[in-house]
Amino acid sequence: MEQTSTHTEHRDDTASKIGMWLFIFTELLLFGGLFIVYSVYRFKNPVAFHLAAEELSKLIGTINTVILLISSMTVAMSISAIQLADRKKAILLLSGTITLALVFLVNKYFEWHGKFEHGLYPGSQELFDLGQGDILFFGLYFTMTGLHALHIIVGIIVLTVMLVKVIKKNIQSDNYAQLENAGLYWHLVDLIWIFLFPLFYLIS
Amino acid sequence: MSQNEKHHIVKYRTYIFVLLGLLTLTGISVAVTGLNLGPFAVTVALVLAGIKSTLVLLFFMHLKFDQPVYGIMVLFVLAVFVVVMIITFLDYSFR
Q1: Which of A93, A101, A134, B5 could form a disulfide with A78 if both were Cys (CB 3.0 to 4.6 A apart)?
Q2: Are the beta carbons of B9 and A40 separated by less than 8 Å?
């Protein structure tokens, strides 16, 4: 209740959070549309989808799932740390989140590289010979995981900005709405992966 | 200081428990694919993914601790998605 600072800053944390959620909804519906496309094509090509999914590495998929889940926890913890005014811990947790995100991308690079080596990329002769179902499966695979990877890259940029702000003390225990919103974005990325993982990697 | 409402500070321990739950569910969904459940495999996978995303939404995204308005909006968007999904499949099934 006590007034600690003389200047009154105009800020509405609730409004900014609602704005962030509205943005997240547009993202959810963007991926939602792709999930609907996926379900329709899978419904029409069930066998081809099952066989094509065997090309994907369950191990890399599982490792990336674990990485994203842990990174989601660390970013959530960094908010608690800021609220408790524990700046050092927040910096450590945010750096950890960014590192895990980078590891995710490295795994993704090796995964895609392996597919390209086997001649599996959109428009390849190999896929053309395999038939319609495989073309659809890998088309969706590259589109959806690619779009998701793009979100990871954006997330890394956003989280890096937040890390710098925490280091520069622009984000503090009484002013952390930005960090909360950045965290929400990162959880969205995690949320999408939770559905991508079983639908692409675990259907063989 | 207190801008809008009281801020709930979530304990680190809570997050660790949620993570352990999420990892367990991931383990189960990977293990289940080896069982060859046939047509139920998709249902099981989606139910597990649904529980996982609920955990993320409630705890990591703070829906459990925030004002109800955010949660209501999320439910509304999910309802929109489900309706579009149902309409699409009605269309494809009865063509």
Answers
A1: A93
A2: no
Q: Is the pLDDT confidence value at A189 over 90?
A: yes
What does the pLDDT read at residue B3?
Answer: 45
Q: Which of A43, A73, A202 sits opposite B19 (nearest CB)?
A: A73
Complex-level ipTM = 0.90
pLDDT at A4: 52
Rounded CA-CA distance B24/A184 in Å is 23
Asked if A125 is an interface residue toward chain B (Cβ–Cβ < 8 A), one would say no
Can you state the percent helix, strand and coil of chain B, rounding each to 5?
75, 0, 25
In whole angstroms, what is the distance from residue A82 CA to residue B58 CA? Answer: 20
| Interchain CB contact of A72 with B (< 8 Å) | yes
- Residue boundaries of the structural domains of chain B: 1-64, 67-95
Topology given in CATH for the domain delimited by A16-201: Four Helix Bundle (Hemerythrin (Met), subunit A) (1.20.120)
Residues of A in contact with B59 (CB under 8 A): 76
